[in-house]
Amino acid sequence: MTIRTAIVTGASRGIGAEIARVLAADGWAVAVSYANKSDAAAAVVDEIVAAGGRAAAVQADLSDPGAARALFDAAESALGPVALLVNNAGIMSLSSISETKDDMLDNHIATNLAGPFRLMREAATRIVEGGRIVNLSSSVVGLYQPGYAAYAATKAGIEAVTKILAKELGSRGITVNAVAPGPVATELFLDGKSEELVDRIRGMIPLGRLGEPADIARVIRFLASADGGWINGQTLRANGGVV
What we know:
By secondary structure, the protein is α/β, with parallel strands linked by helices. The chain has a single domain, classed as Rossmann fold (3-Layer(aba) Sandwich). The chain contains 9 helices and 7 strands. It has helices at 14-25, 38-50, 67-79, 102-126, 140-143, 149-169, 187-190, 195-204, 213-224, and strands spanning 4-8, 28-34, 55-59, 82-87, 132-136, 175-179, 235-236. Strands 3-2-1-4-5-6-7 form a 7-stranded parallel sheet, with helices on both faces. β2, α2 and β3 form a beta-alpha-beta unit. The longest helix is centred in the middle third of the chain and has 25 residues, at 102-126. The N and C termini lie far apart (41 Å).
């Protein structure tokens, strides 16, 4: 049986960890990429291995221009040629545009846009023929809520690059898509929000609940499968109908 290797960034917790678990359950060997939570990444790897899967934790600071090549090198060395890249890692801080500091803006661009861009650039020459690239956007692109400008700007950029790369790699049978989660009950989303605000956001969702990491991981599973092979250059808004 041919082992398919996937890189999942930001896979030590939240949505990324669940994506790693779901892909491993489907037979993917998973490079669990993390920035600084080595213990959490190791726990995800241990869980996958205990369930009979293959995984390796790989540290990568995606704001570093050299991280993309190093991450692919490490994943290939540990697990084999990469057939799937999931650009999940990201940061989110809230601020009005008038109060957004340069360092906050620069950090969002470095982590949420430049990092995934460099990984897509690396994947464009290294991912196997017929492979898959899935980028995590956000449904704040469409909601356009006050306070989310820096975050939404980087995610809108990801959606644009997704469409362009899909056209550039289509001749090799490689699909490139984005998934734009709505509000998901993760540490990234809940951090800094009052219970009142979370309840208000929940009330905006027609299905009446926040998403769970598994809701998003199942969409990634579909796009990574043979069943998702005709979907290309698209952004799937998995958000319970909030936008």
